[in-house]
Design goal:
Layout (H helix, E strand, L loop, with lengths): L4 E6 L3 H17 L4 E6 L3 H7 L5 E4 L9 H23 L4 E7 L3 H11 L3 E5 L6 H6 L5 E4 L14 E4 L13 H8 L6 E6 L6 H9 L1 H4 L6 E6 L5 H8 L5 E5 L5 H7 L2 E4 L3 H9 L4 E3 L9 H11 L3 E3 L6 H17 L1 H14 L4 H15 L2
Parallel strand pairs: 1-2, 1-4, 2-3, 4-5, 5-6, 6-7, 8-9, 8-11, 9-10, 11-12, 12-13
Helix pairs in contact: 1-2, 1-15, 3-4, 6-10
């Protein structure tokens, strides 16, 4: 087997980039001479993540769809530019496959593959596919899903549909919790609560937890906190923690999430498709606070899969801040006091964790490229 080109299309959030990287890592293991290239968005998070990998990437000018007259023209113009850039790059390769992950940047690249009759693979990790993935599904040759529930959205497509789970970075197969504990100066004799708003942080989660900080300090003898704030809110959150008596480490971002998640005892966070897969893979109980502004409420549905397994509880991100804070504290206090319940939730995680999705997808796309030679 020799070479082949693998183009990944998607970006704008870590939830698009990280599954792509996971599959790319496995492709390189299977085919060291493979040429891998990422088409991503111009958002800083894409560059931040990919700059720490070995993979080449191109930031496309694509913008999100909007029906507003001023923005609609910008969408159309940026779509055509992105389509042209991707089409020229893909056309130069004799043996290639395009893997669409989702988001506004994926559509023009996948359309280019479709027009060039290059094999197209779609990875859909949310229960409810987004607008771009619903369109891409019409062109795809193969579709990979995290959840069986998603199959209904692609039932009428010609593509082969496979439920494999969510591709996770190789670090989840060999996490280093002790290394992280040492790096962050965590007390080995205390449990650790992790707060995270995913790759960009969450202001509402930050506010809710900070409002409970005085109560959390009552657990200072047995617990400590790692709080990932997101870059925008770091200074504000760090200042609030400055007088806290509970042990804490406040960071804007942390790269080695496989090891960090394996080092903690409870997590408060969003429930994007990748996040729920990572909580399960790391066997960490979670309090999921789904992002409330998606029309399809897909983060709520994602979290529901953890709840069904006994691995998580859900707290709604209510408009009423006091209501949200009260609900969060009720769940948080109970879990921080109940080691037996946390252990049950860890077992729930293990019952649904899937660590082989990235390898299964990589094996398939390598075979697809081989067949084009």
């Amino acid at each position: 087997m020799v070479g082949g080109s693998f183009f990944f299309a998607g970006g704008g959030t870590g939830g698009h980039i990280y599954p792509s990287i996971a599959v790319a890592e496995q492709i390189v293991k299977l085919e060291p001479t493979a040429k891998i290239h990422f088409f991503v968005s111009a958002r800083s998070i894409d560059e931040q993540i990919l700059s720490k990998t070995i993979f080449e990437h191109t930031a496309l000018p694509a913008k999100g769809f909007s029906i507003e007259p001023g923005k609609l023209m910008g969408f159309c113009t940026s779509f055509l530019k992105s389509y042209g850039i991707a089409k020229r790059a893909i056309a130069e390769c004799q043996s290639a496959v395009v893997i669409g992950i989702g988001g506004f940047v994926a559509a023009p690249v996948c359309l280019a593959a479709h027009k060039l009759k290059v094999p197209l693979v779609l990875l859909n990790v949310d229960i409810v596919p987004g607008r771009a993935n619903k369109i891409i599904g019409r062109w795809a040759n193969e579709i990979f899903l995290q959840f069986e529930d998603s199959r209904q959205y692609f039932a009428k497509r010609k593509a082969s549909v496979n439920v494999v789970g969510c591709p996770l970075r190789t670090g989840f197969g060999n996490p280093e919790p002790d290394k992280v504990k040492s790096e962050l100066g965590l007390d080995e004799n205390k449990k650790t609560l992790l707060i995270t708003g995913a790759s960009s942080g969450s202001e509402s989660i930050n506010r809710a937890v900070c409002s409970l900080l005085e109560k959390l300090c009552l657990f200072a003898d047995d617990w400590q906190i790692v709080h990932l704030t997101g870059a925008v809110n770091y200074d504000k959150v760090a200042q609030i923690y400055s007088d806290a008596t509970i042990g804490h480490k406040v960071l804007s971002y942390f790269d080695d999430m496989p090891s960090l998640l394996s080092a903690v005892d409870l997590v408060i966070g969003r429930s994007g498709a990748v996040s729920v897969a990572e909580y399960a893979a790391a066997s960490v109980p979670s309090i999921c606070i789904p992002y409330p502004h998606h029309k399809d409420r897909h983060q709520y549905l994602n979290a529901g899969k953890l709840v069904e397994a006994g691995a998580a509880v859900i707290v709604d991100d209510l408009p009423d801040e006091k209501g949200r804070q009260g609900w969060l504290w009720e769940e948080l206090e109970e879990l921080m006091k109940d080691e037996a319940k946390l252990q049950e939730m860890r077992q729930g995680c293990k019952s649904i964790a899937r660590l082989d999705a990235s390898l299964k997808i990589a094996e398939k796309v390598v075979k697809i490229v081989e067949a084009t030679k």
